[in-house]
């Protein structure tokens, strides 16, 4: 997740918007500070020559959300881009699992260098199916909880729940996914361990 810097890059722009808008109800100021923080993080990545992809992605998403909210004049529209991405990711994970090509399996197969050979192993297919459904469930839960608040125009509750249902739910599910996928592959013996005869 990019360590502490990655966590700050993903949380601070939304947190700044939420706090400023709750305190001031000034949409332009709240969006300007939120986008400004994303710009600063991107600039730091570029100056320190660290991989900027995540920061640039966050900047684009923050900028697009802010542009929509400025265009409509509605603070709750700052969250629409998040609904679109949650819907897209959730649908992709669900459909991939239902058609027998779970995204978690495709990702793990690529990372483990086995391509799609995992599809011949019923255990791996089963684990990847359920993991992909779990990810689809996470994205669906975000929409189920947050969309009613969006339609009610409750920006403070919406922003708070976006933060609560973001990293605090994403990180544990990512850890479970990693542990479950890792358990499917035998550990290679280290140089200090004797090879089995």
UniProtKB/TrEMBL annotation:
The chain crosses the membrane at residues 15-41, 53-72, 92-115, 127-151, 163-181. InterPro entries: UCP010219. It holds the Pfam family DUF3159. It comes from the Bacteria. Keywords: Membrane, Transmembrane, Transmembrane helix. This is DUF3159 domain-containing protein. The lineage of its organism: Bacteria, Bacillati, Actinomycetota, Actinomycetes, Micrococcales.
């Amino acid at each position: 997740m990019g360590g502490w810097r990655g966590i700050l890059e993903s949380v601070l722009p939304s947190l700044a918007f939420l706090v400023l808008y709750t305190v001031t109800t000034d949409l332009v100021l709240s969006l300007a500070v939120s986008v400004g923080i994303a710009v600063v993080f991107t600039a730091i990545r570029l100056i320190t020559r660290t991989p900027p992809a995540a920061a640039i992605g966050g900047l684009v998403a923050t900028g697009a959300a802010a542009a929509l909210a400025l265009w409509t004049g509605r603070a709750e529209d700052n969250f629409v881009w998040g609904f679109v991405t949650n819907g897209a990711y959730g649908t992709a994970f669900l459909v991939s699992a239902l058609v027998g090509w779970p995204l978690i399996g495709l990702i793990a197969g690529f990372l483990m260098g086995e391509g799609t050979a995992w599809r011949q192993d019923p255990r791996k297919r089963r684990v990847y199916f359920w993991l992909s459904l779990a990810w689809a469930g996470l994205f669906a839960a975000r929409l189920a909880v947050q969309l009613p608040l969006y339609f009610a125009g409750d920006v403070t509750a919406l922003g708070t729940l976006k933060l609560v249902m973001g990293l605090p739910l994403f990180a544990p599910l990512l850890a479970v996914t990693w542990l479950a996928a890792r358990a499917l592959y035998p550990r290679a013996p280290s140089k200090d361990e004797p090879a089995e005869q």
